[in-house]
Amino acid sequence: MEVRKTLALVVAGVMLLVMLVLIGKVVENIDANEILVVQDPIDGELHWYVTAGIKWQGFGHVTTYPKRAIYDFKCDEYKEGTSENQCADGTTDGRISIRFNDGGHGWVDGSIQYEMPLDVINLTELHVRFGSREAIQKQLIETVVNKSVYMTGPLMSSRESFADKRNDLLRYVEDQIEGGVYQTTARDVRVKDELSGADKTVKLVEVVDGSNGQPLRQEQAQLTKFGIKPFNFSIKRLPYDSEVEGQIKQQQQITMQVQTAIAESRQAEQRAITVEQQGIADAAKARWEQEVIKAKFVTEAKQRLEIAELDRRAAVETKAKDILLGEGEARRRELVMSADGALDKKIDAYKFSVEKFADAIKGYQGNWVPSVVMGGQGGGQSTAGSGAMTLMELLSVKAARDLGLDLNVPRSSGSKP
């Protein structure tokens, strides 16, 4: 019994071990980013699975493909002290060589992404022809990309690939990867070397266009033929041979010198324009300053003229007023004279004359009459007094006559003569 139990345990263990070993041949787990194909071990039929989960394997042969992958064509590390034209191991492995129509040579570092088809027909075609993800990338993706890069080089010079047609280089390569390489024609042309200025012969390669204006293709697009979708082609570096690098640097220096000269010329023109405009502005400013001064003087002159005109008008009014006042005063005096004959004035003048006469006679110390009188009556003192009175009377009468005064008091009608 003990032997049977031991034997049963051994058998169970062996069977469990066999099951554990074979369990990986029965089912297969697939991730969401993978495509799984199982080849039936009996009839060889291919079973494709493009969704995630555990799939039946049935001891068949399993192959997986990524739904999306990237092809990098670049060095893992670069050799120091070079123009990035060699990898760290001294080779150019992993990079794509490109040669331009002027003989210049370089290496293209970059990448391209691609998506696998999900339909059974294209997947089966790829699997039958290549059999693995590595083979598809090595034999199909790399071949198509390298050919497209190689066919793009002759469409431009090395200098154009660095400057003028840098974007065209990217566009040409990507378009040929997706649609197939171009049909081209080549012809020799004479051009002037940009550095030496000497004429040289270069082979000009041009794309042949169809009747619809689209480029004609040398062959059918290989990637789209199998349903592969390439996208996001990019160039990270494009190092050239040392000779080409030297020429490009010289061209850059020449270009920079030309651009600098152009910039300096434009700056000089701009300065001249600025100076001219500044001069015009200063002249205009000076003219307007003079106009301001002139306007100020004109305004002041107008003010003075207006003031003078107002003064003149005031003088005219004052004159008219004085004339009216004088005429009124004259008329008033005339009326007063007509009324009383200016009696008050005449009396005042008469009184003034008489007072002056009296003061003159009072101060006179001489003889008023001769001291010897022939005949007549004697008594000199009395005669002198009588003479003074007689003179006063005469002067008073003369003054009254000159003033037109009548000193006689008119008699009433009842008085006697």
Please specify the SSE layout and strand pairing.
Blueprint lengths: L1 H21 L4 E4 L3 E6 L6 E4 L3 E4 L4 E6 L1 E6 L22 E4 L5 E11 L4 H10 L3 H20 L5 H5 L3 H14 L4 E9 L6 E9 L14 H4 L3 E9 L4 H99 L2 H20 L17 H24 L14
Antiparallel strand pairs: 1-4, 2-3, 2-5, 6-8, 7-8, 8-11, 9-10
Textual characterization of the structure:
- By secondary structure, the protein is an alpha+beta fold.
- Among the domains are: 1-65, no CATH class; 67-240, 2-Layer Sandwich (Tetrahydropterin Synthase, Chain A).
- The chain is built from nine helices and eleven strands.
- Strands 6, 7, 8 and 11 form a four-stranded antiparallel sheet that branches. Strands 3-2-5 form a three-stranded antiparallel sheet, with helices on one face. A two-stranded antiparallel ribbon has the order 1-4.
- It is rod-shaped.
- Residues 378-382 and 412-417 have low confidence and may be disordered.
Given as residue ranges, the uncertain stretches (5+ residues, pLDDT < 50) are 378-382, 412-417
Order of SSEs:
HEEEEEEEEHHHHEEHEHHH
> How many strands appear in the DSSP assignment?
11
Q: Radius of gyration over alpha carbons?
A: 70 Å
Task: Write down the overall mean pLDDT.
Answer: 79
- Subunit organisation of the chains: single chain
| Overall geometric form | rod-shaped
Instruction: Give the amount of beta strand, in percent.
Output: 15-25%
Helix/strand-derived class? alpha+beta
Terminal Cα span: 219 Å
The CATH architecture of the domain at 67-240 would be 2-Layer Sandwich
Indicate the percent of residues in helices.
40-55%
Largest β-sheet summary? 4 strands, antiparallel
In DSSP terms (H or I, runs of 4 or more residues), the helix count works out at: 9
Task: Write the CATH homologous superfamily of the domain at 67-240.
Answer: Band 7 domain
For the record, the CATH class of the domain at 67-240 is Alpha Beta
CATH topology of the domain at 67-240: Tetrahydropterin Synthase, Chain A
